[in-house]
From TrEMBL, chain A:
The chain crosses the membrane at residues 20-47, 185-204. Gene3D superfamilies: MetI-like (1.10.3720.10). Keywords: Amino-acid transport, Cell membrane, Membrane, Transmembrane, Transmembrane helix, Transport. It comes from Streptomyces fulvorobeus. SUPFAM superfamilies: MetI-like. One of its GO terms (molecular function) is transmembrane transporter activity. Residues 20-204 form the ABC transmembrane type-1 domain. It is a multi-pass membrane protein. This is Ectoine/hydroxyectoine ABC transporter permease subunit EhuD. PANTHER family: L-CYSTINE TRANSPORT SYSTEM PERMEASE PROTEIN TCYL, MEMBRANE COMPONENT OF AMINO ACID ABC TRANSPORTER. Its main location: membrane. It is found in: Cell membrane. PROSITE patterns: ABC_TM1.
Length: 213, 259
């Protein structure tokens, strides 16, 4: 085993950063899907009719009980004509929505009963009660938790390589295979993850403190 | 419609149960239009439940509440019988009634002004400018003219309760329900809020139902006092009568304990 080849590392970096753009894109879009869909699932879970709540619960249970990797491969097989990145973003988003919906649910439960009653005493329609009163308070309370899920998702994007999305770890593997420099390429990829996610985690912790958790 | 004739509010053998626990037991009472009624009695006697039923925050277990000649939480079926109302009718019924809560329940995510304009705009369909200028008038009335852009968390309890009163008045309710509105306030802030409510009672024709432990307020503001115990009206009369010459032993005991 030779020493760490600094030249190879320097050589790999541009390629990895190219992959990192895809990683970031998948994370941002996946987070958006998870944030919006999770909210919809949480609100639907409170619907008065079981015709709504039961299917919603079944789907979220299914998503939570199966591995992300299996979901990715399965979805890529079913939607083989769709671009892999699109499939990856949607699967990531749906997978994480199953978790963010729980976060939203806790946030909604955390809004005091008096807020619902005040809205009702003012005759606010249900839609307006959610929009103007409940969700702004619920979402504010769960922002740090949502942020933490975004960071987790960021670190799980390498799974997308399995369905041929050319994100950073995909590129690292390719470079490693072509130049017999796996150690360098993967170490570098790990460092890029660290540099990107550690400050984000710190930011989330700061946000948590500011919101008084 | 019997507008103007007969009582504005009538409880007709109203029962409220939680499981086996009977909170209100075939309660009958009426409130005339413009009347200011104070409900007194030991805690757990069902006073707050009465307000919550009127605000349709709770459903009656039995009996009917009539407001202005119409059933509050029922609709007439084709055969003339009454059946429980749906959410849409409840929303319609609520518009006549406003409520101020013990814990204020202002919307913390909105500034003071929007707390007051939210319902007039989104429920009454009032134009935003008009709603805002009315909200400013109301804030002036409650002595908080300079606080339009404050967040509720920046206000004292007394100020928050004043905003809550302004918010309820903005919907121009015919009936205002006051649920122990000074109980959560620091003692030095109580008098100001009570003075404000006295002013409103004197200067408007809003019918008020008020649950309070402030006997002076009951004496100064209301024309009728209802003494509750165990879900029933034990005694009712003018404040002079109730406070100086109560008929029932239970009333005497209660007043001796709180005065």
């Amino acid at each position: 085993m030779n020493g760490f080849d600094w030249n190879a590392a320097g050589d790999a970096l541009p390629l990895l950063l190219e992959g990192f753009r895809v990683t970031l894109l998948a994370t941002v879009l996946g987070t958006l899907v998870a944030a919006v869909l999770g909210l919809a699932v949480a609100v639907a879970g409170r619907a008065p009719s079981r015709l709504v709540t039961l299917p919603v619960r079944a789907v979220t249970e299914f998503v939570r009980s199966t591995p992300l990797l299996v979901q990715l491969v399965g979805a890529a097989a079913v939607f083989s004509s769709v671009e892999p990145l699109t499939v990856g973003v949607v699967v990531l988003g749906v997978h994480y929505a199953a978790y963010t919906s729980e976060v939203y649910r806790a946030g909604i439960d955390g809004v005091p009963r008096g807020q619902w009653e005040a809205a009702r005493a003012l005759s606010l329609p249900a839609r307006r009660t959610w929009q103007a009163v409940i969700l702004p308070q619920a979402v504010r309370n769960v922002l740090p938790a949502l942020g933490n899920y975004a960071v987790s998702m960021f670190k799980e994007t390498p799974f997308l390589a399995v369905i041929t999305v050319q994100e950073m770890v995909f590129e690292a593997r390719r470079y490693g295979a072509e130049h017999f420099a796996y150690t360098e390429a993967f170490t570098l990829a790990g460092l890029v993850f660290l540099v990107a996610s550690y400050p984000t985690s710190l930011l989330m912790r700061k946000l948590e403190k500011r919101l008084g958790h | 419609m019997t507008t103007g004739v007969g009582p504005l509010v009538r409880f007709d053998r109203v029962v409220k149960r939680y499981g086996d626990h009977v909170v209100l037991d075939e309660l009958d009472f009426t409130v005339r239009r413009g009347e200011h009624v104070t409900l007194i009695g030991p805690s757990g006697s069902g006073k707050t439940t009465i307000l919550r039923l009127l605000m349709t925050l709770e459903k009656v277990s039995d009996g009917v509440i009539w407001v202005d000649g119409s059933p509050l939480s029922h609709v007439r079926a084709a055969n003339g019988s009454l059946k429980p109302a749906g959410e849409k009718q409840l929303r319609e019924s609520r518009k006549k009634i406003g409520m101020v809560f013990q814990q204020f329940n202002l919307f913390p995510n909105m500034k003071v002004l929007q707390n007051i304009t939210e319902a007039p705009v989104s429920v009454l369909g009032m134009d935003r400018d008009e709603a805002e200028s009315r909200a400013r008038e109301l804030l002036d009335l409650v002595g908080l003219a300079g606080k339009t852009d404050a967040h509720p968390s920046q206000l004292s309890g007394g100020q928050q309760q004043r905003v809550a009163i302004a918010r309820a008045l903005a919907m121009r309710p015919e009936i205002l329900l006051l649920d122990e509105v000074t109980s959560a306030l620091d003692p030095e802030l109580v008098a100001g809020v009570l003075d404000l409510l006295s002013d409103i009672a004197r200067s408007t024709d809003i019918t008020m139902l008020c649950v309070t432990h402030e006997m002076n307020f009951a004496r100064d503001v209301s024309e009728k006092v209802l003494m509750f115990d165990a879900g029933r009206v034990v005694e009712s009369g003018t404040p002079e009568k109730i406070f100086s010459d109560p008929e029932h032993e239970r009333t005497r005991e209660f007043l001796a304990a709180v005065l």
